[in-house]
Amino acid sequence: MIQTHLNSTRSWIIFCAGIFAYMAAVSQRTSFGVAGLQATERFDATAQILASFSVVQLVVYAGAQVPIGLLLDKVGPRILIISGSVLMAMGQAFLAISTNVPMGLVGRILVGSGDAMVFVSVLKLLPLWFSGSRIPVLTQLVGTFGQMGQLVSLFPFHLLLVQFGWTPAFSVMSGLALASLLIAVSLIRNAPGWAHLSTSAPMRTRDRLSAAWKQPGTRLGFWTHFTTSFMLNVFLLSWGYPFLVQGQGLDGDFASALMSIFVVVAILYGPFLGALTARYPDKRSNFALGVIAAMTLMWAVVLFWPGAAPLWVLILLLVAVAAGGPSSVIAFDFARTFNPPHLMGTAVGLVNTGGFFGGFVTIYLVGAIMDWQYVANGSNGELYNLPAFRIALLVQFVMAFIGVTFMLIERGKARRQGTKIPA
C-alpha cells in the first residue's frame, strides 16, 4: 500500500510542532542549571544537596525511559507529548512556589517525568511521517533545533531570575510548557494506520524488552549515548555554570552568555553530522568516538591548566562538550537500524537511558567529592573553588573510560551480526 501521508505538508507541520515541544522540554530541563547559585541561597543547600536536584531529575528521566518506550509502542507519541507538557507545566509551577528542599525536589521530579516523555516521542513521529532516507538528517534536526531551548534558559529565563526573582522566572517557564501543550493538542497526530501498527505484533513487556536489548545495536546505542552525553548533562544541568563562575572567575552574565555556544555548535554541527551518518552509516561509531576523544582532551587541558584557564581554552572546552549533543543522536540511529518498527519505541527508550544514567551518577559524585573536600578542610573558605573543582571533575575520565570500553565491545558484536533492518 502506498503511504501517501509520508513527506507531506502535514508531515512537516507535525515535525515543526514536535520540535517546538522538544525545545520547550529542553528549556525546562536546563533552567535549573543556570539557577544553581540562587538555589543554593534559596534552599540553604550544600553542593551535594544542590547536585541532588539535578540527580533526582535525571534519575526520574532515566528510570522512565523503558516504561515510556513500552507505552510509546502501544499508544503512540501524541498522548505522551501532551502528557509530558502537562507534567512539566505543573513541575515548574510547583518549583516557583517552593521554599525548601523537599518542595523543590517534587517540582524537579515532575519536570523530569514530563521531559522524559518528549524526545523519544518526537523521534517516534519521524518514521511514522517520513520515509527512511530522510530520517537520519531529521533526527539530527530535532536535536539541533530542540537545543534552542537552552537559549530560553540562558537568556530570558536567567534575566528574569536575576531581575525579578525565583517565583516569576519559574512561573514563566511553566507558561512556556502550557504553550507547548496547546500546540501539541492542536497539531500533533499519530500516523494514519497507527492502530494497526501498534497491535500488529503483540508481545509481553518482558519479551519486548528482551527482544530490543538482545540486539547489539541497541546496546551499542546505549553506551554511545552514555559516553557522548554524560559530560554535556553534567555541564548544562548542574556544574558547568558554577564551574565557570566560581571556579574560573567569570562574570555570571558572561558565563550564561558563553554557554550559548552549546546551541551554536548544535545548529552548525548537527545537520552536518546527520548528513555524514546518512552517507557513511558504517562509520557512525567512529564519528562519536572522535568527539568523545575531543571532550576528554579538552577537560584534561582545562583541569590541569596552571591557574584559571584562558578564555579561548574555555571556549574550546565548551565547543568540544557541545559536540557531544549532536553525536549522542547517532545512538538513536543504531536503535532504528537494528530493530523492527514495533520495537522502535522500546529500543529508543533503552538507548536514551544511557546518557542520563551516566549524567546523574557523575553529577552526584562531583557533588559528593566537593562536599568531602570542604569538610576535610574544616568547612573553611569557599565551597566552590578551582582546586576543589579540579579534583571532583576528574571523575569524568573514569566514566568516559567505562563508556568507551563498552562501546568498543558492543560495536564488535554489532558488526559481526550486521544490520538486519534496512537503514
Give the arrangement of secondary structure elements.
Layout (H helix, E strand, L loop, with lengths): L8 H23 L4 H8 L3 H29 L1 H20 L4 H29 L5 H12 L2 H16 L1 H22 L6 H6 L5 H10 L1 H32 L4 H7 L2 H19 L4 H20 L7 H18 L1 H9 L5 H33 L9 H7 L2 H23 L6
Helix pairs in contact: 1-4, 1-5, 1-6, 1-7, 1-8, 3-4, 3-5, 3-17, 4-5, 4-8, 5-6, 5-17, 6-13, 7-8, 10-17, 11-14, 11-15, 11-16, 11-17, 11-19, 13-15, 14-15, 14-19, 16-17, 17-18
Overview of the molecule:
The protein is mostly helical. The protein is built from 19 helices and no strands. The chain has helices at residues 9-31, 36-43, 47-75, 77-96, 101-129, 135-146, 149-164, 166-187, 194-199, 205-214, 216-247, 252-258, 261-279, 284-303, 311-328, 330-338, 344-376, 386-392, 395-417. Helix 3 runs antiparallel to helix 4, helix 5 runs antiparallel to helix 17 and helix 16 (330-338) packs antiparallel against helix 17 (344-376). It starts with 8 loop residues before the first helix and ends in a 6-residue tail after the last helix.
